[in-house]
Amino acid sequence: MNSIFLRAKHWQLFIPLVVIPFIAMIIFVIIIAAITVTNRRPPSPEDFIWISYFFPVIGILSGFIQFAWFWNVITKLSKLVSDKVRFPMTRIKLFFFIPVIYFCILPFFISFAVKTTTTSHQNIDAIFELVLFGILIFILHLFSIFCILHTIYFSAKVVKCVEMQTNARFSNFVGDFFLIWFFPVGVWFLQPRINALAEKASNSLSSTDEELVDRF
């Protein structure tokens, strides 16, 4: 099966998902501490505004890895399921892209809000706008969480359905559901199983191709 995310090892997913952001956070803390110590005057929020531009990049990197994994499991691994099992792919894809779009935009909104609150003079209008902005983000955030849980549910179901080659119930894949929910930990347990399924599919395809060649 030709999919980088299905054939990748667990550590190859773990490094960009956890290790790189963790190292970046340590570097930011060291830089902030160095600026605070070396400044002769008390540091102001403006001294750290530049850091807010890097957090969206780190968040998008981690989010891309996880959601790309979701997408490959749902769209590619699901092809290995028996024809008797049907998934509501239109709804699954719709609920998949809603949080993707939301979380791609959210870090920039947060950076903008932080920059606005630290560099502009506060007044009633600005506070009112921030409150409305916060309410909107809260509603979108709750709906995005629901969409993510929906995606996690079907990702876990696809994995179990491929293994069982039948329509799995939630009781069959509840463990996988929580492993995907806590993905940085669960990837160490799930990815070897997915690697095995992808390898099995590739071997089956190779065997089929060899049989066709032998016939001709």
Descriptors for this entry?
transmembrane; 216 residues; disordered C terminus; membrane; transmembrane helix; DUF4328 domain-containing protein; mainly alpha
Account of the protein in words:
It comes from Fluviicola chungangensis. The protein is mainly alpha-helical. It has one domain. The chain contains seven helices and no strands. Helix 3 packs antiparallel against helix 4.
Morphology call: elongated
Helix content: over 70%
Order of helices and strands: HHHHHHH
Q: Report on the biggest sheet.
A: none
Protein name: DUF4328 domain-containing protein
Transmembrane segments: 12-36, 48-74, 94-114, 126-149, 170-190
Organism: Fluviicola chungangensis
Keywords: Membrane, Transmembrane, Transmembrane helix
Short structural summary:
The chain is an all-alpha fold. Helices cover 80% and strands 0% of the residues. Mean pLDDT is 82; it is low at 207-216.
Secondary-structure map with pairings?
Elements lengths: L3 H4 L2 H29 L15 H22 L13 H31 L4 H41 L5 H12 L1 H33 L1
